[in-house]
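I am still getting used to C-alpha cells and would like to learn alongside you. Would you supply a protein for us yourself, any chain you care to pick? Start from the sequence, derive the C-alpha cells from it, and show both lines together. Go ahead whenever you are ready, and we will take it from there.
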Amino acid sequence: MSRIRIIFERLRAQGGKALIPFITAGDPSPALTVPLMHTLVDAGADIIELGVPFSDPMADGPTIQRASERALANGIGLRQVFGQVAHFREKNRDTPIVLMGYANPIESMGMDAFVDAAAKSGVDGVLVVDYPPEESEKFTATMKAGAIDPIFLLAPTSTPERIARVAAQASGYVYYVSLKGVTGATALDIGAVAARIPEIRAATGVPVGVGFGIRDAATAGEVSKTADAVVVGSRIIEEIELSAPDEVLSRVRALVAGLREGIDAVAGKAR
C-alpha cells in the first residue's frame, strides 16, 4: 500500500483531513530545502508537494514563478531534487512526497530514467501540469509499475468526459484547482468548490485535494469541510520571501501550524 493511501485511510478513520503544503525545491536556498520539509511535517503536514523548478510554467502565478527563478539560479534541477528527497528520507520514511512540475525536464531525462530515479529517492507521487490524461497512458503505466501515484489536475471547467479520463488513470488523490486562473489568486468561491467535490469524488473513487486561493486558516477549514485535503503553496512561498534567512523555518512553521489548527478545528479534533 502506498504511503499516500496509508495517510488518507488513517485520516478517514480518525475523521481528519490532510494538509498538503507546497514549497519549491532549492528556494530560498538548496541548504534550506530539507530542513523546510522537516519543518512542514513538524507543523502538521500530512503530505508534501515539492515543486520542481522550471523556467516556463503555465499554471504557477508570479509568487511561485519567482521561487522557481531563485531555485534555478541556485542550480537546482531534477537530479538535485531527487537528492533532496533522498536526504529527507534519511530521517523520515513515512511522510509522502509528491513532485509537482512540468513535462520538459522529464522528457529531457527520459521517462524510464525519471521514474526509476524518483522511486529510488523515495518519491510517492508525481503531478505533471502539462501531461493531460489523454496523453498520459504510457507515463501513468510506467509510474504505477514503479509504485508511484500519478496525480492529475481537475478544474471548474473540467467536463464529465475529462473527469472520466482522469478517473481511469489517477491514484493517490486528484488535485482540484478551485478557481480559473493561476496559483496565488484570491477569488475563491467556497460554495462552488463544495458543490463540485462530491461529483469528482464519486467519479474518481480517490481522495480529492483542493488548492489555489487558500491563504489562511479560516479558508483552509472551510475547504476541508468537503475536500479530503487542503493544498497551500503561494502563501507559504510568500512567507519564505518575506523572511530573513534565520527566520524562514520559524515563520513557515507558525504559518503551517495555523493552517493545521484551522483544519482540525473544523474536524473537531485535536492534533
Q: What stands out?
A: The longest strand covers residues 18-24.
